Amino acid sequence: MSTATTRLPESRYGRSSDERADRRLKAIGAVLGALLLALVGYFAYYYVGKNEISAEVITFEPSKDSVRVHLEVRKDADAGGYCTVRSQAEDGAEVGRADFRFDGDATRIDKVVTLRTTSPGTTAELLGCHAD
What we know:
Layout: H1 17-49, E1 53-62, E2 66-75, E3 81-88, E4 94-102, E5 108-116, E6 125-131
Antiparallel strand pairs: 1-2, 2-5, 3-4, 3-6
């Protein structure tokens, strides 16, 4: 005796509904993946590529009524802007904040600035830089 099969012949009656659903899900996944990649690229360009001025605190020296801060600023040659620096007391209270302007054609600027404080400051923190 032979065993009868109940399976349909392959590819004789078209695609099954599972195969159509799989194809549709793959297409939707590819479109969503492309949109996500475009969104990440946009944010990377906007936040990293368009940042025309950036800086970092190299050293700082606190004193009784001020903090001397050594900043290293990097910017585009034609860009101008300012960097905001603050100082805090030992208890965490803000004792000084100031904006320091950076203009000119140089792309790298090392500058020592003096931040006046209302009481002895123990830190010098760069809050950020902004282009004009």
